[in-house]
Amino acid sequence: MHSLKVFSGRANVNLTKQICEYLDLPVGQITIGNFPDGEIQCKIDQDVRGQDVFIIQPTSPPVNDTLMELLILIESFKRASAARITAVMPYFGYARQDRKDEGRVPITAKLVANLLTQAGANRILAMDLHAAQIQGFFDIPVDHLTAAPVLDHYVRALDIPPEQLIIVSPDEGSIKRAATHAQTLGGSLAVIDKRRSGNRVEQAHLIGGPIAGKTVVLFDDLISTGGSICGAAHLVRKHGAEKIYIAATHGVLCGNAIENLKSAPVENIVLTDTIPLPEELLPNLKILSVAALLGEAIRRIHCNESVSRLFTDNMKLWSVR
Ligand code: R5P
């Protein structure tokens, strides 16, 4: 078997270090910099000919830079004769434009899939894609992980009695995700009717409940400006929720996210480390690590073992910190 090598782009070096610790491997040696005009340059500082290479790079903000860097890294490993190149994208940017929902707009998720393949990626390892069907935009294998067990582990430790717990989906697009959490955690399900008109978001109705006096956990795939999840938190508080928690995989946190989250009526905000964030950003922010989950998935891909069984083998990777 070709030997396993893990390299990092510059977007989440700390996560790569933790993944390598899990795998008991050194982080691959590569130098990445910028030319004076901003163009990205890189040099792989070790031989990778015939090796099984994994490149860790979330395409988080600044998304155009992190994406371009990933493409350049893939191209470098292809030219350096790596046997197989897997792009590990803990966060897959540009995923929200995944269909033509009106005339004359792009499908950027498909464009990014084409770019990655064209650059030379042989496989993709992603986590909580905005829409699972993005896997079908690729003609190369995609392993799609979820951070749900990591988030559920945190919520379970809060010890909320099932009759007290309401899992709320902040929009209809996240119903399936919320339903899966409700199945694992117990409790009942409610949904917010969220409507977008241009950049304006309206969250006027709550379907399900009653939630007065209950503990609500709002689950989403990502928090960008925080408009959706904080609007949802205000609405459930208006409906009488006693305690509210927010849990999401990707903390994109741009625009007014910090102000929005600071003024949201919530106990804790739980995110994972797919995108690097200091826990000190907010007094009630909790960052959970997905490094062991990604590390184990990399090990299994390298050894040709089942990746889906990672979620059924009760491996307790989510208690590793
Ligand atoms: C929507 O479909 C997504 O799941 C998120 O709820 C949304 O994109 C988050 O964006 P923001 O935080 O800006 O409302």
The fraction of residues in strands falls at: 25-35%
In CATH terms, what is the fold-level topology of the largest domain?
A: Rossmann fold
CATH second-level architecture of the largest domain: 3-Layer(aba) Sandwich
Biggest sheet overview: 7 strands, mixed
- Identify the CATH class of the largest domain: Alpha Beta
Give the tally of structural domains.
Answer: 2
Distance between the termini: 30 Å
Oligomer: single chain
Q: What is the number of E strands?
A: 14
Derived from helix and strand composition plus strand pairing, the structural class reads: alpha/beta
* H-E order: EHEEEHEHEEHEHEEEHEHEEH
Radius of gyration: 20 Å
Based on CA inertia axes, which overall geometry fits?
Answer: globular
Structure write-up:
- Helix 1 packs across helix 8 (291-302).
- By secondary structure, the protein is an alpha/beta fold.
- A seven-stranded mixed beta sheet has the order 10-9-8-11-12-13-14, sandwiched between helices. The chain has a five-stranded parallel beta sheet with strand order 1-4-5-6-7, sandwiched between helices. It has a two-stranded antiparallel sheet with strand order 2-3.
- The chain contains eight helices and 14 strands.
- The site of ribose-5-phosphate has 14 residues, from strand 11 and helix 6.
